[in-house]
Design a protein that fits this description.
This protein is an alpha+beta fold and 175 residues long. The protein contains four helices and eight strands. An eight-stranded mixed sheet has the order 1-2-3-4-5-7-6-8, sandwiched between helices. Its EC number is 2.3.1.254. GO terms for molecular function: protein N-terminal-methionine acetyltransferase activity.
């Protein structure tokens, strides 16, 4: 089955239900998705199958200044019946290319410590655990997160991926 990649459009929001049903997927309110669409459109992509069904998406942004200017993966998810087909890899590569074009030094993301499948994927893509964040995920299943990073070509010395030795508390992170 052929997969097509394109930018998110507002009517796609109604097609996310099946993807967001996964318990490891963070779901957001409609306003959150539209904020990303309006501010960081080039970072919000979907993958669809031959039938026009959205089977995966990625949303992100760029933020920070100077050597802290980076791309951020806010969410990447693939429908369970489409996993292990290289779709997440393709979406991540597109987000990384956008970050390079925007002059970013690295890309980062947060992932639940228990999500070993995602962690392995990110490691295969060149991401390293930069730090652990205590209390990052709240709600019915609170959990710590890993902040994983991948240096981009602008970070020639790979300073952005030198791991921190001590975990940080989520309450100390900027909004």
């Amino acid at each position: 089955m052929k997969i097509a990649y394109r930018q998110f459009c507002p009517t796609d929001i109604h097609k996310f239900t099946r993807i967001n049903a996964d318990p490891l997927v963070e779901s957001y309110g409609i306003g959150f998705y539209f904020q990303y669409y309006s501010r960081w459109r080039e970072y919000f992509l979907v993958a669809e199958n031959n039938y026009g069904e959205i089977v995966a998406y990625i949303m992100g942004k760029n933020e920070g200044i100077d050597e802290n200017h980076h791309g951020h993966v806010t969410a990447v998810t693939v429908r369970s019946d489409y996993r292990k087909r290289g779709i997440a890899r393709a979406l991540m590569e597109r987000l990384e290319e956008t970050s390079v074009d925007k002059g970013c030094y690295f890309v980062d993301l947060f992932v639940r410590k228990s999500n070993t499948a995602a962690i392995k994927l990110y490691q295969k893509l060149g991401y390293v655990v930069y730090r652990e964040i205590i209390g990052y995920y709240t709600g019915p299943a609170p959990e710590n997160a890993y902040d994983m990073r991948k240096a981009l070509p602008l970070d020639t010395e790979k300073k952005s991926v030198i791991p921190l030795r001590e975990p940080v508390d989520a309450s100390t992170l900027p909004d």
